[in-house]
Amino acid sequence: MGILAVIVLLAACVMIISFLMQWLAKENIFVTTVREGTVKVIMRGDSLDHFVMSFAGYHLSDQRKLLCTDSPEWEVIYHGKGQDEKFDDRPWWLKKLGLYWVGWPWVNSVYVYGFEWNETYTDDGGNEKILPRSEATDFIYVADFTYAIRTEGAETQDRLPTDELTLVTVAIRNPYRALFSGEDWMRRVTAAINRHVRDFVGKKDFQDLISSKGDTDAFSAPIIKLNEKLPDDVTGKLPWGLQGKYGVEIRTADLQTIELSGEAKKQDQAATTKAYVAEQEAKAITLTGKADAKVIKMKGKREAEALDARLKVIKAHGATGEMLAQLDAMQESSKGAGNTVIWANNPFIPLAGMLKPTETKGGEKS
């Protein structure tokens, strides 16, 4: 019983310590968690101490550990699959708990900074919408992450204002340069892409722009080249490009949408709506006309059939049939409120004698 009690007590202590460590990690006290594909900065006072990264197949060039000393400091280096343990020097208990050491809270802390960016989401109608984000964060992505870049009021060659949505997939290749280069890397990427989009749009008429949206060679390739050289890079002065200056690599760039902006958009929508309504009205008139014509045709056919049958009856009864047909016509015309038939000197009276029985020889009536 004594051994069992000790085991239970030890298990309870482990659970309590594990729970306590996870709570401390959420608060970045003593330890922290690092999401896969991200990096956190550990500060000593107000200065950088080191980075901690969780990214399978990759490690950071760390001069303190003499890792990849021939690479720039804090560069993200690919070492391949199955080699992670070689570059992970955490104590076994931290590995088991999935935690990273921060340090004593009165000395070390996790760096928190404000970050603004745009993402996209799909609404209930299946349309792609922009979701602006602005919040404090304590990590940076080193794995591929897709951002939305909105370019507003770019004029086409035929002077039409347009709005463009570009999706760029970005990977941070050096978190130190991205966070401590003196400039906001997201703003710098956004500015470089906006400049390219305006230049791309300005060389085409609106209709040509719409048709060439998927031209990756014309649109995407120059954006990818921004990794190596920016338009304002000075010859002979290094580093160059987004990757050299800010540790940022643009992996893909896709022009998603092009639409007229401002008053031009409203006018285009109004014209489109007007054209649609006119088209629907024209279709309705055409359908109504066809229906009316069909009804008239069917009605005429039925009337013709009825008239044909009636004529056969009249023909079969001779003069008597003709008189009855005329009487029926007069009776029909007298139907309805306000219809009065004045019948003086009935022209059919002389014919009435034809209906009386006549005497034949022998006194028989027929």
- Summarize the biggest pleated sheet: 4 strands, antiparallel
Cα radius of gyration in angstroms: 45 Å
CATH superfamily of the largest domain: Band 7 domain
Content-based structural category: alpha+beta
**Percentage of residues in DSSP E strands:** 15-25%
Give the CATH topology of the largest domain. Tetrahydropterin Synthase, Chain A
CATH architecture of the largest domain: 2-Layer Sandwich
Q: Specify the CATH class of the largest domain.
A: Alpha Beta
What does this structure look like?
The protein is of the alpha+beta class. The chain has 3 domains: 2-107, no CATH class; 113-260, Tetrahydropterin Synthase, Chain A (2-Layer Sandwich); 278-332. It has 9 helices and 13 strands. It has helices at residues 2-26, 92-97, 175-180, 185-202, 206-211, 216-224, 241-246, 262-333, 349-352, and strands spanning 30-32, 38-44, 47-54, 58-60, 76-78, 100-103, 108-110, 113-122, 128-137, 140-141, 145-155, 161-172, 248-260. The strands form 5 sheets. Strands 2, 3, 7 and 10 form a 4-stranded antiparallel beta sheet that branches. Strands 11-12-13 form a 3-stranded antiparallel beta sheet. The longest helix is centred in the C-terminal third of the chain and has 72 residues, at 262-333. It starts with a helix and ends in a 14-residue tail after the last helix. The mean pLDDT is 81.
At a glance:
It contains nine helices and 13 strands. The protein is α+β, with helices and mostly antiparallel strands. The chain folds into three domains: 2-107, no CATH class; 113-260, Band 7 domain (Tetrahydropterin Synthase, Chain A, 2-Layer Sandwich); 278-332.
